[in-house]
Amino acid sequence: PPRACDNYWEEFKHCVSWGNGFHHYYTYGTVPSCQQWKNDYNDCREWEERRSAEAKEALLKSERDRVAEQGNFTPVWELRKEPPGDWHLPLNQEKPQDS
Amino acid sequence: MFTSQFKCEIMLKLAMQTSPYAKLLLSAMNSSGCKVIRDRHFACEDCDGSVSGGFDVASSQIVLCQNNIHQQSHMNRVVTHELIHAFDHCRAHVDWFNNLRHLACSEECVRGRALRSILAVRKISAEEAQKIVDEVFDSCSNDHAPFGRIPHGSKDAEFAYRDHESRDRYNTNL
Q: pTM to 2 decimals?
């Protein structure tokens, strides 16, 4: 499975915790929905212990949905293809800094 | 007597070793081709005013204001904050000086704090700043890189760090 099964359970417990609910409500104005983590945990165990094909599919779909949701925005800036060329240059080759 | 520079160096080391936010950012930067070397990319200095630190794009260096950081928790926050700027600089073409949208995005995406940061850094009117922050808010607040989530507390940060370390397993299994 993409994650260790216990991870899903820990995410579920964290999701339903008071602290997380507070932050979620403050940020989004809604209570968080946590059931999916629990479902994922159960599917993960089914997959590992009983090699259930349905559980595997359900879990993979759930994770793919998660990934898709995260990519759902237009970036504000253009991503680089390579890291900045001057990142590793030694300091005395850089432009002089203000003190 | 411990000089403020010495204390700053110690707190910096501790932040890099123990803060899950910092550790995740360091690891993400490493993967992005911007490996962070403490002696090269961090500098403890005395600063004017009450500023805690800054990211100097020209020298690719994070400045920590040793005269203004006195507690480890503060150091952890400053290191994390500046590493986020460095990370954004590493992965994107951020126009720090001319593009206020970029600046708004790289500052914390809680509206109020982004607003105050922009006003502090650039002399523009409050309405202009508010307008910019509103425009970029939806886009920026969905960009959780490299955390994968909004880390409200250290538990979030620990989970984010764990996910980041296991990302190979995650990606191959999808």
A: 0.74
